[in-house]
Amino acid sequence: MTTASAPASIANLGPGFDLLALAVSMRLEVEVERSDRWSITSDGRPVDEATRLAVREMAGEQPHAVFIRSRIPMGKGLGSSAALRVATRAAIEAGSGWPDPGEVFRRAAAAEGHPDNAAAAVYGGLVSVTATGGILRLGVHPSLRIVVGVPSAAMPTEAARQVLSDTVSRSVAVRTAARVAALVEGLRLADPTALAAASGDEMHEPLRDDLSPITAKMIEAARAAGALHAAWSGAGPSAVALGTDRTAAAVARALGDVLGDEGEVLRPEIERTGLEIT
Fold first, then answer.
1. What is the tens place of the pLDDT at every residue in 16-46?
2. Is the pTM of this model over 0.85?
3. How far out from the chain centre does Cα 124 lie?
4. All domains of the chain in start order, with CATH
5. Could you tell me the sign of the dihedral formed by the alpha carbons of 207, 211, 217, 223, in that order?
6. Distance CA 139, CA 87 (A)
7. CB 272: neighbour CB atoms within 10 A?
8. What is the rounded CA–CA span in Å between residue 133 and residue 110?
9. Alpha-carbon distance values, 64 to 32, 38, 84, 94, 246 (Å)
10. Is the dihedral angle over the CA atoms 215, 220, 223, 224 positive or is it negative?
């Protein structure tokens, strides 16, 4: 039996659509063992058809017994599908030799249809995917604290992507590039001015607001409570906010006030380690 695990991830962080992601300290673990028939089970969670398809897609034709343990909320914009794909493929490959992280990333990214979550799941920390498919590891200032508001209702990534436009204007592209530059520098230095300049995404967040109005409310509440940055977490409906030791508790209370009984507030750490195999 081979076991592999991969972390949750927060993609986009506002303007970094499909290129930035941050791994956080919730992990999904997959145990695999060769078998004469397929068996896919989980630690108390129902195994839906999407999970079965993802496992079979990454595992190949040889039947396996697969057991999944996960602390990542599913369907909430926290990279659970990428973690599942990465851990499954790595565990399968580890049965016949140490897997190549680059190949695991490429296969998982291709199956996901976008590379950001897969990159964070494999490599950990804050990563950016280059225009040619390479990986850049970026810095995050140690003073930054992560707060995530997770609504009870799930939202499939496919639904969140269907509302997006295939094209954007030149002016939107230029402003988005400016926001990404400000975001990367702001995360590196915990610079409030730079992080403020990173807000106001035009690529995806406004187009998704009608799908999950509570997400925009959480972002607004987090900023009012002192968050240095707040954005959709991946395709949502979760929202991520960045605070400091001084402001994180107030930001968490603000997100909790918006959610009420309809969700939970998490305070994960940055996960510096990506894919792990035992």
1. 999 999 999 999 999 999 999 999 999 877 7
2. yes
3. 11
4. 2-137 (3.30.230.10), 145-266 (3.30.70.890)
5. negative
6. 24
7. 14
8. 11
9. 6, 5, 15, 13, 49
10. negative
